[in-house]
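Q: What would this chain look like folded?
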Amino acid sequence: MKSIFNFVALDIETTGFDFDKNEIIEIGAVKYHDGKFIEEFSTFIKPLKKVPRFIKQLTNITEKQLASGTSLIDALKKITNFVQDEIIICHNVGFDIGFINKKLEKNNLPKISNRLFDTVELSRIYLPFILNHKLGTVVEYFKIDLSHAHRAIFDAKATAEIFLKLLEFIDENISLQLNFRLSEISLIAHSKTDLPIFLEKIVEHQKKYALLSKKKPWLDFHNRNYIEHKPEKAEAITVKETFKKNGLFDKKFENYEIRNGQIEMSKAILNNFLKNEYLLVEAGTGVGKSLAYLIPAIIHTNKNKTKVIISTNTKNLQEQLFYKDLPTVKDCVNIPFKAVLLKGRRNYLCEKKWAETTLDFAKIFSSYEAQDFLYLIVWKEFTKTGDISENSSLNANSLVWKKLSADRYFCFGRKCPYFRQCYLMDVRLKAETANLVIVNHHLLLADLRSENSALGKYDNLIIDEAHNLPHIAPIELGSSLGYADFNGFFSQLFAVRRKFQSGTLINLKTATKKSRFEETKKNQLLANIEDIIELIESNKIIFAQFFDELGKVVEKRGSYGKLRITDLDDHPFITEYLSEIIKFWEQFSKCFVTIRNILSGINSKIFVNYSLHLDVIDGILQRTAEFYNLLVSFYNPDFQDFAYWISSFKADDKKYPNGILNSAPLSINQILNDMLYKNVKSIIFTSATIAIRGKYKYFANRMGLDLLEDGFVQELIVESPFDYQKQSMILVAGFLPGPKDRFFSAQSITLIKKTIEISQTGTMILFTSYKDLNKVYDELSSKFTNNITLLAQGKGMSRSAMLNEFRENKKAVLLGTNSFWEGVDVPGESLSLLILYKLPFLVPSEPIIEAYLEKLESEGKNSFMHYMMPNALLKYRQGFGRLIRNKTDNGVVLVLDSRIFTKEYGRFFKDIVPAKTIIPFSDIEIYDYLGKWFSSIG
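A: My prediction, written as structure tokens:
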């Protein structure tokens, strides 16, 4: 198959992403005929403006190389002459050819109009299971050498190799039938390449050699969601014999370290399960809390034939538990158990929707949606779980996925003809009989709202990363409404695409016409269907106008995409629109009630697929009722107990209505008591940062645990095994002006620059806002020399890619905001200096925070000390926790916020962490401390 295309693989390096403002500084290309290398082209281009430091750092292109480069016009003429009329292949062809064509156009030269293939697009179609589709990732997957990444000629060579490897991969793994389906879809898809021609050639080749083709089974490409441990000889175990010297773990692992805190925590959890009590347990970094709760959970479930739900906040921990920690336990213990990784239903593909969509995709999808649909075809062929998180090619928030994912309103359960193949039912049935079910906080809270429809009844719950729950719960237990909610619902009911009508109402209409029953009822049914279609078509515009108006209001008056609502009189248009929408909704719902009544009076035996249609209508009625209640709740807001705000998002289509209505309860105490605590016998709340100065009062009050019977909630603090006094030091720049002072920024940046230069070690700088991060980044970018790698959140690299680079580099500088304050594990010299730009106080103008602060003040409480301060202290501890990750780590924390010294509350920050806090009064003192520290550790 490698020989079916002759092509040129091309890559460029530029000074930025703007076709108009930025310049091309290097072009590289390689030519292949019949799968064999023919020749290459490479040139540097002399820039007209100074090249940004980070570009030179990224590409390793020197000033000397650029100075020796050719002119842009000369380079453009040479590359167009080199490619001739060959197929051009790029890794992101829209960027490379788009950039070149813009420069050709500006210089009055003919644009490139060759056929274009894109290895990003092709890898998204054929390799949906890899981590992402960046050049480096695809190169690594195919084991292609790329020692000089971000250099045009080397990237061009890598792109050519990727293309050839993809052809080989398709030949060995992808069937003719699958490629034929891809080919059909590509004809209506909005691709910026000549994908239909590529697929047509592939299909032609496979047809020609169909009899010789033998597809290899494609194994181990996906993650499982089920673990079953069936030891040959089942043996009961205890906590002690698992963790002790010469115990189960010690015998299995080299350099196993006994941790007394881990044993103490594990015993306390098991005891808590037995007594049916609640437990708050803080386990410091290094305790090994995951295994400390997995072992007692398995012992308890095995002995008592019960189920334990384990909930985490982050996907990282969820996957660590399931794919790393549980397999570790499985290797060490001879106690049988079943574990399931369970997610919300929207994460799973609906087989019924897939079957209907595949049959009529041209009627259902727009050209943009058809392009996204392409990225599901190969994945669907091989997935065993139907979990979209396996598929890196498609965003789970895409419209296509919303049309194909499981939906409780249109789910028929055991009546569904695809029930036996249902991914959601499969994993839920496994969860019913599992000992351990791993979920995240979002599913846990959503399940509470739906009366345990996903998790069923359970008596034991472990909540890890519990410190996040007070922040997540109000949002998850709140509500939001956007245009996509209504438009998606209407599209499921009725849609017109390329003159084809589709949707639930059309299906019901077809079934009605096919069925033989009383003509009067048939006409009534058809008339109501037409009435609903007319209602939808004539009123959709109102929803678009309303949510568009909301988005515009946020843009004009909001802050960071949000605007709090404290009085609807300030926004009369909201009341006017909601009044009109509610009237429409009442009429809309009434038509469905009429349809339901007519159907219930028809003999089920004479109506085509009667029970399925009845279930669909019941689902629609349930959904319309929920929508109605939400609309009314926003029309008659309860400002005393809820926060209300409008938010907006950046849509790809600038004309898309992007406003969203939101509400959240200000207090979750009673809600959790009613929904959770009354139904679950034993709950473990654990985290590395959950207590404040050894007390759980703040967390307990926020979570409503103070409402429970005295003595029912047990408490335990397990100290970290690390010697923070010896391993770390905290320096506070007490001489700097306060964060609000106009001189703070300039002076702090000067201190940061000098500190990094003196330390010459891996440095992480944590911020509380992107505004501060960007300002510091811009300053450091212009001042640092090429030998320091500067990484920053929001500058083109993913979080995981940044962390990988940071770990490997050893002397890089990483700038991060909120998500880097926790869940980041960088042991060793890669992180030896941690700089906290400001104390991590919450933004008081955030709608839900502002409303909660007002509520506290109305109750006569000091909102700063009751809420802002405890949150900041916990966040400060989380930030500090990034520095020391094992017993051999050493490092310094530098705090640039002098309020620790100047404000009375500063003493709380000094007391909250286990390391000694020193307050130097000059930059010279800081440099002296740093110099001595880093010279003493080698």
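The chain has a mean pLDDT of 93.
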